[in-house]
Description:
The protein is α+β, with helices and mostly antiparallel strands. It folds into two domains: 2-149, Sandwich (Immunoglobulin-like); 190-538, no CATH class. 44% of the residues lie in helices and 14% in strands. It has 16 helices and 14 strands. It has helices at 2-12, 155-182, 209-222, 233-237, 277-285, 290-326, 336-361, 371-394, 397-400, 407-410, 417-443, 448-469, 477-491, 502-539, 550-555, 569-575; strands spanning 18-19, 22-24, 41-48, 55-66, 78-85, 88-94, 97-102, 109-121, 129-137, 140-149, 261-262, 265-266, 580-583, 586-589. The strands form four sheets. A five-stranded antiparallel beta sheet has the order 1-3-4-8-7, covered by helices on one side. α12 packs antiparallel against α13. The radius of gyration is 33 Å and the shape is elongated. The N and C termini lie far apart (69 Å).
Amino acid sequence: xxxxxxxxxxxxxxxxxxxxxxxxxxxxxxxxxxxxxxxxxxxxxxxxxxxxxxxxxxxxxxxxxxxxxxxxxxxxxxxxxxxxxxxxxxxxxxxxxxxxxxxxxxxxxxxxxxxxxxxxxxxxxxxxxxxxxxxxxxxxxxxxxxxxxxxxxxxxxxxxxxxxxxxxxxxxxxxxxxxxxxxxxxxxxxxxxxxxxxxxxxxxxxxxxxxxxxxxxxxxxxxxxxxxxxxxxxxxxxxxxxxxxxxxxxxxxxxxxxxxxxxxxxxxxxxxxxxxxxxxxxxxxxxxxxxxxxxxxxxxxxxxxxxxxxxxxxxxxxxxxxxxxxxxxxxxxxxxxxxxxxxxxxxxxxxxxxxxxxxxxxxxxxxxxxxxxxxxxxxxxxxxxxxxxxxxxxxxxxxxxxxxxxxxxxxxxxxxxxxxxxxxxxxxxxxxxxxxxxxxxxxxxxxxxxxxxxxxxxxxxxxxxxxxxxxxxxxxxxxxxxxxxxxxxxxxxxxxxxxxxxxxxxxxxxxxxxxxxxxxxxxxxxxxxxxxxxxxxxxxxxxxxxxxxxxxxxxxxxxxxxxxxxxxxxxxxxxxxxxxxxxxxxxxxxxxxxxxxxxxxxxxxxxxxxxxxxxxxxxxxxxxxxx
Length: 627
């Protein structure tokens, strides 16, 4: 009934201020205002006084009445406005300005409007205030409306919230690229897995980037749960929307978008306390409607996949030219299967959480959305699941986690079959828990309690797995992020309906923002600065430490003057060969160009020790190099 009134009012009334979700202060007994005429809309605007720095609240209460009922508006003689916010309460007496204008295109009906202006005082950088407007007639209250209003933050605060995380992300990305290219201290990983990627990308790639991206996505998406947040929390977290593929405009579909901000406040249009959290976030961001939002996300994922495929092919071509110039004929992997695997691995490693969240969110609207749209969302989830299973069958499980786990600390212990199995199980658990988190965030918008319980359970399970599998050191980014996520989810129980007052919610929201800021600074910014400084010191050091891995030895320049030009067959037969080649059905020693036994050195080598004696030929063994 209320929505019908609002729809009719929007058709006949001019736009005055921003729409504010409101309810009656005392329930049914305050449902009548202006001689039993119920209000239909509560709109407000917040403006700053340039000379004093204080804020003014201008609000409008409108309703449609018969022409003969216009005089009833004068029954309201006084207004009492109560303000409640973190930091203090205030009560302001105001005089109403009552007017009645004919409703356009509706003969015999008029629009009754009561407006007033009140001084709020100085507002905090991030603030939400509770306002209750009491309508009095000769000292007797005839009605009361209440609402929560969130003023728009200043441009400087908005810039800090938007550009500081983006700058941190770019900084971590640049340092991660430098560490991947120039840092040779990552722990080795065995190459006993037989697949197209068993010898490629086994060390950590872009270390730290995946953890940062996941945590930013967690901040944004957990601010989109169906909870009763204080008004400023979702706008503060909304500035991280692009990290979760949450486009703020109709990027590809050019459909209608929400206004987001109107007349100095964040405008949220929906049933009070009954709208999904992701819908609230969509309106705050100023994003398109539900269908267009998901379609923009899907198109973005496809374009990222195409871009990654092109990047993989370019890197393969450059690597091939470099090997050709250096005379390296080592095997390399290419083709559609290899490129597809790299693309799927990157997308699943970095964007599994937002893809599944927004896709499962479409099922919450399955009753009103077209069947083909719900089918497309289900199809995308099916593709994601099949891609994960295909990757498990094509590449080593530890290689699957190379983009999001720091191998330099994770794989330093001596490996054995049980530990390798534990590592694989832990990585699979991480992906499965991410999928469960995403499904709870997007698919359980109808039940905020279930969202909190599932998210907290996922963090507890992950923490238990970290301890059980000894996945990370006690002091590491992985442990810090897990504990921070668990604490933030537990704190969010305060935002459940009818749990706490606005002041308590505001205090907890400030605490959450402080927690997230501390994690971004101490778990990502400072460690990245440390790794950058460490890398610079290592690169400008006076002496490079000796390296013995095959990957490092290939990079080492071999002096050509130390090699003899005559045949090496006799030395191979006397000292034993290092390579075997089948010939005519049997095995015969075959010289290898990279075998130390096939080289006559004019001076001692740092990497090869001659045989101690001419003892009988040793048993032929194949060298296993650790990459």
